[in-house]
Amino acid sequence: MTKKSAHLISHSHWDREWYMPYERHHYLLTELMNDLLDTLERDPEYRYFHLDGQTIIIEDYLQVHPEKREQLEAYIKAGRIIIGPWYVLQDEFLTSSEANVRNLLIGHQDAAKYGVISKLGYFPDSFGNMGQAPQLLKQADIDTAVFGRGVKPTGFDNVVIDAHGSGYESPYSEMYWSAPDGSKVIGILFANWYSNGNEVPVETEAAKAFWDKRLGDAQKYASTSELLFMNGCDHQPIQRDLSEAIDTAKALYPDVDFIHSSFEQYIDALKKQLPDDMVTIQGELRSQHTDGWGTLVNTASARVYLKQLNQLGQTLLEKGAEPLATLAHLAAGKAYPHQLLTHAWKTLMQNHPHDSICGCSVDEVHREMITRFDKSKHLTETIIDESLQVLAGQIDTASVASWPKDSLPVTIYNMTGWERTGTVRIELIVAKSYFKEGPNPPAIAERLAQLPLNLDNGVLLDDQGQAISANAEDLGVHFGYELPKDKFRQPYMGRRIALTFEAQQVPALGLKTWAWVNEPTAQAEAANSPLNATDSGMANAHIAVSIHADGSYDITDKETGFTYEGMGVYENCGDLGNEYVFRQPEGDIALTTKGLPAQVKLVENEPYRVTYEIKHTWLIPVSASELFEEEKRKMVPFRKRAASRSSELVPFELITRISLDQSGKGVQVSASYNNQAKDHRLRVLFPTGLTASTHLADSIFEAAERDTVPAKEWINPSNAQHQHAFISVSDGSQGLMIANKGLNEYEVLRDGKNTIAITLLRSVSELGDWGVFPTPEAQCLGDHTVEFAIYPHKGNVIQSGAFASAYQFQSPWFHTTAMGQQQGTLPTSYQALEWSGSSLALSAFKMSLDHDDVIVRLYNLANEAEQLTLKPSFPVAAGYQSDILERRHDSAELEDGLIRASAGKCEIITYAFQHKQS
């Protein structure tokens, strides 16, 4: 009989902030690390400590104890403190595809400073695991992942469940885990949680009781004689007497080899014994085959404002600062700001741990997150502004013969992966006057205010001389300042105007320039618009919208002829849950705006855009009933709470603006409201009327296909799920896609209509989990605005290409103005990279730290191979196949300046281009 080995891995799962504010946890972290260094120093038998897979712990510790750097570094290099591979332990589903990549990349970069990194996919407490994790890990040379949730036999509240029966996804705690592209890693489930070897007794009798149970529990699931015991838990102090405890265990169980181990040592031993009947689990691990209460998916709707700020911060980095800085480098040789971008990413990622971005911490934590979002955003916007300023100076506006010399060129930048058309609003200065610092210069302001602008006679011309319909608005005189690189700040007063127009066919990863001509002689006839408004709707060449008296609307797809009826009804119900879990009161019937009279008025009717405003004045319960407060104090489990909604009502006013662009293939919607109610949930409903058993949701580097009807084990009445940019239901002939900005929770209802429900607000009053932690700010009282868009499409969302509209909906436009005309190296219309592949999405356009290569990353959303072509518009010295760590691999040959390749199903592809300096 094979002798069993009990591998004890010491660790402390370090939630950087959670049920206490960050600095309280930070204080405890310094104690933990000091104890760890002392223990390693005095006890050579205390061999290893796993530093929770996140390098930020090192930063946080050295912030307080910089004098410990040398000692810490020595133990890391000696392999006794194991670090990486992540920067933070993120929530995978609430952080973007690129954020997950940067987390791994920056974790590797930080660990490289110490020369050692843990090559382990460490997901101890993620609230479900992304399906593409195996592919990401394999690209980083990681072949094993450990995780705590997502697959049976783990139970909620860390309960060990009997492993008998056939309902388990894996009979063992060890399995193979495969990504949609086929990449496969070894998966190890913490079947007895990551605390099953915590606080090992030294005293003989207590140790016997401890190990009799723990050895038995581990053997229920283990596929080999190598048993895993995690010596630690959340914020667990170091067990200083572990060596003595191991000696006690060895004396009690001579047939078991007790080892103070590392994951590397444990996994090496495990690999030698893995059985032939290991199960392969596929894709996302979201606890699909459980009762549905322990998935913690409703963290996707806790404190929605955090998700909105995160989506904006990620997008400004991915589709703003990085590609624009790359363009500025390629066009003008401006140094790429690697360190600044890393700092912006790190500041943003400090909000990405699973108890932070999930919104499931105490109020103080989430207040501090707002500051971090702002800090990252401010730095990101500065990088964007600097890059745009450089690019503006490179655009050759003097060569456009149709633009008068005193015209004002304006350039629109599209940093998404596809050509883009849409309505933009830009502000520009038509006249400015500088002044020295001192008293307020009222005379300058008065003179500028008197300038005759003749905006009604102005015209916007493209670079072919064609007039474009535009609305010009005088914004008056405003103070501004410039910060030259070679002298003191320059304050000025400037006369501003706003231009609103449809920017048509702006190239992907490129720019297009127009000119504002403020002369009567320059008047030109704009082309007729296919957009029109009616008393109750609007239509263009692609879709028609009809608005009803209750504010709902029908949308007809002119390409398929199919009409989606009753869109945009709002639903409100009670919520007795917490920041982790939604729970509707027993017997509660949701309120809706269906049949509720609304005020509908046309507020914008321009050739480029039509907008209606819909106003609902609604009465909803003020909170849960009084019983709810008593139940929370007594810690009545959320599933057993008997409270209902209050009979007292408060006004809930909704202002919805629904817009259709001249060339739009969908309608864009914003909804604003002032929430004065508590303990409730607000959703918006889109009945598709389509027959389908599955749907596609945008997830990490994939459009995940999910069952609308959950598995038979699922008893939770709600089947809410995560999304990023979109959710789509299709019957194969036509489909409906709902795009969003920072609205990460949806549900496809089992109501016979396959209604898509998007969560807009969830108001709750407590953290939940293991104690009583009131979180009054999680009620989200006050003003809110949310944005979403509705796109009908042919076929499915991938085949039709509609997914690109969702990604563009999340991405802002950028613009610059150039005073007068100038010569430059960039044409008025420019594209940095041409590429093709109908099912592919462009994920990143940036530069690598190691070689200053231009990095291009794409991923295939389809379950079949797709042909890819790449044609850089910049000179290339060499091309390389790369990976998510931005390393150079095999050469990528360019034939006639073009790369041709095949993207495998669901494959993530990265190329590195060495820029040829002119």
From TrEMBL:
Whether Transmembrane counts among this entry's keywords is no
Q: Which Pfam families match?
A: Alpha-mann_mid, Glyco_hydro38C2, Glyco_hydro_38, Glyco_hydro_38C, Glyco_hydro_38N
Q: Where is the Glycoside hydrolase family 38 central domain?
A: 299-373
The answer to whether the entry has keyword Oxidoreductase is no
Question: What are the UniProt keywords, alphabetically?
Answer: Glycosidase, Hydrolase, Metal-binding
Would you say which domain of life the source belongs to? Bacteria
| Coiled coil regions, renumbered to chain | none
Q: Secretion signal: which residues?
A: none
Under the heading InterPro entries, the entry gives: Gal_mutarotase_sf_dom, GH38_beta-1, GH38_C, Glyco_hydro/deAcase_b/a-brl, Glyco_hydro_38_C, Glyco_hydro_38_cen, Glyco_hydro_38_cen_sf, Glyco_hydro_38_N
Give the family this protein belongs to, as stated in its UniProt record.
Answer: Belongs to the glycosyl hydrolase 38 family.
What is this protein's name?
A: Alpha-mannosidase
Q: What is the lineage of its organism?
A: Bacteria, Bacillati, Bacillota, Bacilli, Bacillales
